[in-house]
Amino acid sequence: MKRERIVVAMSGGVDSSVAAALLKEQGHEVIGITLQIWQESATETRGAGCCSLGAVEDARRVAAKVGIPHYVLNYREPFAEKVIAPFIEDYKRGRTPNPCINCNRYIKFDALLEKARSLGADGLATGHYARVFRDDAVGRWVIARAGDAAKDQTYALYATKQEQLAFMRMPLGDLSSKEETRAIARKYGLAVANKPDSQEICFVQSGDYAEFLARSAPETVAAGDFVDTAGRVRGRHEGVAFYTVGQRKRINIGSATPLYVVGVDAASGSVMVGDDADLWATQCLVEDVNWVSLPEPCPGDDPIDCAVKIR
Could you confirm whether 51 is annotated as catalytic? Predict the structure, then answer.
């Protein structure tokens, strides 16, 4: 195996820590970088979430244990612009965003990737559970599901471009389970081996995203009307930010059959509810498509059969 200089995005969790340790064991020149992407308040815990102050300290300790240099870079401004601002705007539009996708797209695999290139690196590694490889049959780089289907994170990487995929390294892609990752961490004596996975939005450390939105976009957590598919008012809800299409919880309306959220209208502050049948459709409109494993179709091309995963 060719020895490479590889920058590892170290979040302070067990996944990226094991990625760094594996690459070092393989003989690569490994550089750990942790991004400081938001400012904690006095009420936030130092150990919670990726890239918190506690996570930075964990990453630094892991780097010392593995024997690699470690640097902390301040990316607060681009993170606020590219991740937090779109997160708020999506809720204003009645959508349910996934900020990790924009973080991967604009911070890890854009800004940090360029930083890695400036350091003369041959690749940028992360602790994502996905496989990236060159498919010579189609002449393109592709993203494939991880060995652990339960941890597969390919959906969060959908926006990566060909030139980025060629630079990416994902050492955990072939592992069979999260327990295997933790076992490797214990083998290397990493203090984060049993650290719980971060389940919260990293810039909402209290875990209460509604409190965050109440400060940033109060209209999204203001009470409004439940309406049915016929337009009749059926009750009151707690705020459009609490609802997404397909949801069944938080619908406090008496009904002989289960009710589901079938639409969110942020402009009027209403949430539409209906029966299970109202959720089904034969078509969906998608935007911001990234053609990864095949070239982008040209106008006039024949239709393409696709398997689509709704996340």
Answer: no
Q: Is residue 197 part of a domain?
A: no
**Residue 202 designated active-site:** yes
Give me the catalytic one of 51, 100, 202, 298: 202
Catalytic position from the list 103, 284, 298, 306: 103
Q: Give residue 37's Cα distance to chain centre.
A: 15
pLDDT of residue 50: 61
Phi, psi (deg, nearest 5) at residue 123: -165, 165
Which candidate, 220, 244, 263, places its Cα nearest to that of 92?
A: 220
Q: Could you list the residue range(s) of the whole structural domain that residue 29 is in? A: 5-187
Flag whether 303 is in a domain. Answer: no
Pairwise CA distance, residues 203 & 242, whole Å: 18
Average pLDDT, the chain: 90
Residue 46: its pLDDT value, please?
47
On whether both 261 and 155 belong to a single domain, the answer is: no
CATH of the domain at 247: 2.30.30
Quick one: pLDDT at residue 42? 44
Q: What is the pTM of this model?
A: 0.87
Read off the pLDDT of residues 38-65 as tens digits, 9 standing for 90 and up: 655 444 444 445 656 788 999 999 999 9
Q: How confident is the model at residue 256 (pLDDT cuts 50, 70, 90)?
A: confident
Domain count, the chain: 2
Burial class (CB in 10 A: 0-12, 13-18, 19+), 180: middle
The domain boundary, picked from 187, 210, 240, lies at 187
41 with 129, same domain: the answer is yes
